[in-house]
Please model this.
Amino acid sequence: MQCRPTHRVRRLICELVLAAVAITRFAPGLQAQANMSTQGFGYPTGQLSSRAAGSGGSIAEVDPLSPINPASLADLPSRTVFFQIEPEFRSVTTANGTDHTTTARYPVVFGAVPVGNRWVVSLGSSTLLDRTSTTTFTSTQPLSATESVDMTTKFEIDGAMNDVRLGAGWAPARWLRVGVGAHAIAGHNRVSVTQTFADTVAFSPFSQTRVLSFSGGAVSAGFELVSKLFTLGASARHGGTVRMSVEDTVLSHGDVPTRFGASLSYTGLANSFFSIRTSRDNWSSLGSLGEPGLRAVDAWDTSVGADVAGPHVFDRILFVRAGYRDRTLPFEASGNTVTEKSVTGGLGTTFANNRILTDVAVIRATRSANIAASEHAWSISLGFSVRP
Amino acid sequence: MLRKVAVLLAVATTTFAIAACSEKLDAGKSCPLLCPEQAISLVDTTIDAVFGDTTVLGLPPIGSETYLMLASHGDTVETRAIVRFDTLQQSFTAANNTDSTITKLDSAVLVLPIAKPDSAHRPSSPITIEVYDVDTAATDTVASILGSLFRPDRFLGSKTFAPESLLDTLRVPISPDSVLVRIDSGTHLRVGLRLVTPATQGYDLRIGTTNGGNSASLRLRPSSDTAVKPLVISPVSRTPANEPFLSGPLVDYTIVLVGQTTTPATELAVGGIPSRRSLLRFNIPSRIIDSTTVVRASLQLTQAPNRRVDPHDSVYVFPLAILATPAVSDPATLLRFVSSAGLVGLDSLRMAPADSGVRSFEIVGLVRTWRNQPQTVSPRALGLLSGAEAQLPAEIDFFSSRASAAVRPRLRITYVPQTSYGVP
Model:
């Protein structure tokens, strides 16, 4: 169903009606995550390097350390190994109180090797959707007309849907880079449920673990146009089928989200980028992977930021970064779309005769939906690039 | 200055990030707003799962008692305790540290450790313990034969005890001459104990056993010289000869002269005199036992009041796992291979013989062990026994599967059905 009326008021009424229908039609499914960001199959970390995260993600399409645009691989001057850690400190507040959690993430790892003069080939893995969370709550289960039992349920979900990319970038001219990538969607969600009972004499705890595995594929392609003052990067990923299975049984299938995006950077200052980026992910193609009530929404991800060559420290250039990012998260919370706004900052420099690049980014994210809950998070992204 | 700030910032950030590698994920205050209807529902059902239940008398087997039950309740219950002293020492160490042959006995005392009765279980008037010579060439474990030996010509001694004197040990003097004859002849001494109470008052006394690690003993004084240490002789059993597996337990045991020797088919019983245990076999649908997770299994038994002996003295009733292979089908044998109390979380219930109503034994720990186990591997059965079996006469009765439908044993099961949890 779509709203087509051209009159603004009628269109608004139509959208409200559709929203109400959607809420009743897609009743909240079996969501086990007690936060807004990891609903559904999880939180999209964005596949950004620490450098890109520090500038709000605005340089993602022209950043070779972010596994998004394969064309940017051609910017790597030598063999590179990259590793990133990104803990998130999250607070979720509702009328019942505030939960404080810490989630350790390792969102990007990859290696790249120049082949010939103009080619760079890379193999890496990045987190597409991280579902790691633990939810504990109590409830009362009626057993008969006169009897009930109090129980505590604990859901522990560990794992992610990952994007393993084999990519190649080519620089046929000084002003042009192109690239292609083949993606394997892999990973698993290890879901453990434990129920304990207040009456420990009569009842024994219940505990089960289930591993949901993902497998799928996608292809991507992109380009970069480089001039003295501007760099334009754009890429797209076309999703194939993704399956979810338990052991050897396929439970469901959907499509890997198709994505396209572009970054435009002003590079008029030496070693500096002033960028804007927008990207569109068709997350709704993952909807059929879950229960019928699961609703994934297509989302824009827009950011502005800068990566500027700052002062010299220890005879090295210290890059200073800042940015702002606004995006919609893929899975609804209680039937409402979740949006995320982030303010970011970061630093970067090199060590060991430019063989080690270290980037640090600090991200303050605020997530909201039209429900009586709020979510805030601090993330620290540490990226290490080694050029052996 | 800028350098110092940069170094400090880098160190702090790195430390902070590495420390964050230890996750803290527990949350839940936002439920049910953000995680609605997540508790996995339970299914509760009650089924007639018990079949082939039966009661077996004479368990624990003779000689396996942890206490000898010496009971006297007139026409209702009469028991005797037997203690064997099949080896009697023939010499002693005199005051001058030389070994001497026993030629006379200054005294002979039977020392009986007892379970001290609490104030509610003391007799209201004095009780007497009589000791008889029960040595015989006839079959010496048969109650009718042994019972006939408690007669005046075999009387060895007696002592009357005031209620307040029933502490931890009773000493009963017996005829030194009778003991000396056996020492001289190198034969054994076997004594039988009888409890004598006033006609209108029954009483039970628990005497320690070798099995319980606190057996009766014989204290002999072979010399009138007080410097000579008395001989303490522990009970020993030598028959059947060359069969220590059989003779060993017979060092001390109880025989029942008068008791309830049958249990109606419509009842299951535990405890009592003679002591008995019950066996219950289960037939639980595979769709429940194998395909779900059982979180509660309550064996519901309806108690039938029993007012024969000590109707208000409560005892513990234990459900125990059967450890024998299903190749063993004899109920009496199966009920000898039971687990220790508390295994797989099986808990006991305390009840008095005269009580009535539904009793619920929680056996979920045992039922869970049956999951996906063929009955050729794990017998779906349990034994019921009294915590005071062969020690107290209390008998707890339940209605069996052959009783009317309303009071038959039932199994109430609460389980978690198969769910597709985890898929968002």
User: Anything to note?
Assistant: Chain A touches chain B through 79 residues (CB under 8 Å). The first strand of chain A starts at residue 80 and ends at 85.
